[in-house]
Amino acid sequence: MDTVTQRVEPVATGPKTFDAERARADFPLLSRSMRGKSLVYLDNAATSQKPRHVIDAIHRYYETLNANVHRGVYQLSEEATSAYEWGRAMTARYLNAPSPAEIVFVRGATEAVNLVAATFGRQRVGPGDEVLVSAMEHHSNIVPWQMLCDERGAKLRVIPMNERGELVLDRLPDLLTPRTRIVAVVHVSNSLGTVNPVREIIREAHARDIPVVIDGAQAAPHGPVDVQALDCDFYAVSGHKMFGPTGIGVLFGKRALLDEMPPYQGGGEMIRSVTFEKTLYAPLPMKFEAGTPNIEGAVGLGAAVDYLRQLDWEAVARHEADLLAYATEAVSDIPGLHIVGTAARKTPVVSFTLEGAHPHDIGTVLDQEGVAVRTGHHCTQPVMDFFGIPATARASMAFYNTRDDVDRLVAGLHRVREVFPR
Ligand code: PLP
Fold it and tell me: For residue 155, which of 134, 132, 177 has the smallest C-alpha distance?
């Protein structure tokens, strides 16, 4: 069972409780006021706040280490290179990748999927072939595959979901056909919170020699991931959703596959030698990192992982499960509120609609109360189409959220109900 799945199993009793108040103190932005009230930040699935550890690491990098990496023979460049590679090594450990060489720095989960589709996808997918995604993918795990299928004359197929927002895996054996070349599935849905049984999907696909790409953007913020236990071929994450900086993310890929793949982009840093006749590419992971990389991003992501690694994740799991249960029950008392996404296994995400109030109106009234939630389709339009709604309001929580935050959300929703009576 993978870490995230394990995490949301009901926990009977546990010795330690997670001290969310103490964790909050590590995140300077959480002490801000908004609209004259203390900020309640419930948009963690869009981006998370950053601990001082990350902010300081980036600050320190520019004050003491800044130089271009992998090129200089002078000490400062060597130190910058070490800091950059430290970020890679830390991330490799967080994902339990066998080697840092299998960790490719990218801009985020979106670029990670695009990289795989444009290289591995082009190698594997031809006319009449199929790429299998799920009904609850973020657009970033649909559109790159759709572009590939259009280019190659291939077909995009979809694992369906049920009314609770769970994948219907009974259909999987039929959907994995002799033409399926790649399966690409989200680990945790950003709009529903569903934790998908990706291990099972990977096992089924591998039984037919089909490689699997996992979009882990919403899983990694809720605990360390074990790509070896999952046995996924590729795993994509975004640094900014896991308490690190924006503009940095990671693609894990199995070495044998990455070795066989052509480069994604050409330029400096990704070569061994260049003549006008022929270019020889650099070894992994540099082959996929053309140009000056996001050095500060790698350092910041390393610091984020360094911070995350010292948390007691079992205690965090109990805390997040408590937040989800508490919030689910509390919002259910609001007249006319419908939760969208009621899977048995969820991260602390509550997506909902409210009769008589458009989600954008809900968001605007909550903002007046100092409560930040996301409203819209959350880059999952097919999910909205499935439920026959244009949008939801979504409260997405992280380990630093508390029951008090949920109480403020509920008070805000009662205010919405007053402003927009049913
Ligand atoms: N996948 C999922 C499930 C997401 O929630 C997101 C962002 O919301 C992405 C992919 C894309 O991440 P990014 O915009 O950081 O590339």
Answer: 132
